[in-house]
Specification:
- The structure holds two protein chains of two kinds.
- Chain A contains no helices and twelve strands.
- By secondary structure, chain B is mainly β.
- Chain B is 0% helix and 50% strand.
- Chain B is built from no helices and eleven strands.
- In chain B, the strands form two sheets. In chain B, strands 2, 4, 5, 6, 9, 10 and 11 form a seven-stranded mixed sheet that branches. In chain B, strands 1-3-8-7 form a four-stranded antiparallel sheet, with no helix packed on it.
- The chains are: A mainly beta, B mainly beta.
- Chains A and B meet through strand 5, strand 6 and strand 10 of A and strand 4, strand 5, strand 9 and strand 10 of B.
C-alpha cells in the first residue's frame, strides 16, 4: 500500500531565509509524486510533479523538489521565502492504476515571519 | 474557463439532515474525485469516478453516496449527516491518464451540529 509521511507539522521561517519541507513515501514501484500548496480558505494548487527523468524538478513560484529513490524522499525547497509563501503544503503520491487514487500526506503548515 | 466549481461554499446541517454537494468541471476531464480534509489528516479520498458512468469507493466512503450525472458533474450526497462528517470537502478532476495532474475546486466547508 502506498503512504506518504510529512514529518514536520509546522515550520516557521524568516522572510528571505531558505525553506525545505520533507516528504517520505512508501510505494512498491516508481512513484508519481506531487507537491501541492493550499492558501487559507482556498483549494489546492499544484506546485510541481515528478514522474520520471531528471530527479530535480522545477515548479512554480520558485520551488523545486528532488526525488531520491534511495531515501524514498521527495523534499521541497525554496532558496528565499516570501511572506506570500505562508500556506499549507501537501505531498502526494499517485497510484499506478490509471484512476489516480492519490495518497496525501498530513500537510506542513508554513509560517513566515518578518 | 472556470475549472472546477463547487456549491455551496459553506453549509451547516443538523444531525440526521441530508444534503448534496455539487461539483462541476469545464475542462472535459474524464476522472473526478471527492476528498475530505480534516486537521492533521491531509486529504482522504471518499469516492471517485474514473469515467462517466462509473463510480468507486475510496478510503472513507461510509455515510456518503455519489452520482456521476454526466461528464461534467459529480455530486456527493450525505443521506443522514453526522457530526463526524464535519469537514472541508474538495472535488477534483483530471484528464484520466496515469500521470497527469488533479485540479481542485475551492472546497465546501460543512458543519454538522
Amino acid at each position: 500500500a502506498q503512504s506518504v509521511t510529512q514529518p514536520d507539522i509546522h515550520i516557521t521561517v524568516s522572510e528571505g531565509a531558505s525553506l525545505e519541507l520533507r516528504c517520505n513515501y512508501s510505494y512498491g514501484a516508481t512513484p508519481y509524486l506531487f507537491w501541492y500548496v493550499q492558501s487559507p480558505g482556498q483549494g489546492l494548487q499544484l506546485l510541481l510533479k515528478y514522474f520520471s527523468g531528471d530527479t530535480l524538478v522545477q515548479g512554480i513560484k520558485g520551488f523545486e523538489a528532488e526525488f531520491k529513490r534511495s531515501q524514498s524522499s521527495f523534499n521541497l525547497r525554496k532558496p528565499s521565502v516570501h511572506w506570500s509563501d505562508a500556506a499549507e503544503y501537501f505531498c502526494a503520491v499517485g497510484g499506478t492504476d490509471s484512476w489516480g487514487k492519490f495518497q496525501f500526506g498530513a500537510g506542513t503548515q508554513v509560517v513566515v515571519t518578518p | 474557463n472556470a475549472g472546477v466549481t463547487q456549491t455551496p461554499k459553506f453549509q451547516v446541517l443538523k444531525t440526521g439532515q441530508s444534503m448534496t454537494l455539487q461539483c462541476a468541471q469545464d475542462m472535459n476531464h474524464n476522472s473526478m474525485y471527492w476528498y475530505r480534509q480534516d486537521p492533521g489528516m491531509g486529504l482522504r479520498l471518499i469516492y471517485y469516478s474514473a469515467s462517466e458512468g462509473t463510480t468507486d469507493k475510496g478510503e472513507v466512503p461510509n455515510g456518503y453516496n455519489v452520482s456521476r450525472l454526466n461528464k461534467r458533474e459529480f455530486s456527493l450526497r450525505l443521506e443522514s449527516a453526522a457530526p463526524s462528517q464535519t469537514s472541508v470537502y474538495f472535488c477534483a478532476s483530471r484528464i484520466g491518464q496515469r500521470t497527469d495532474t488533479q485540479y481542485f475546486g475551492p472546497g465546501t466547508r460543512l458543519t454538522v451540529l
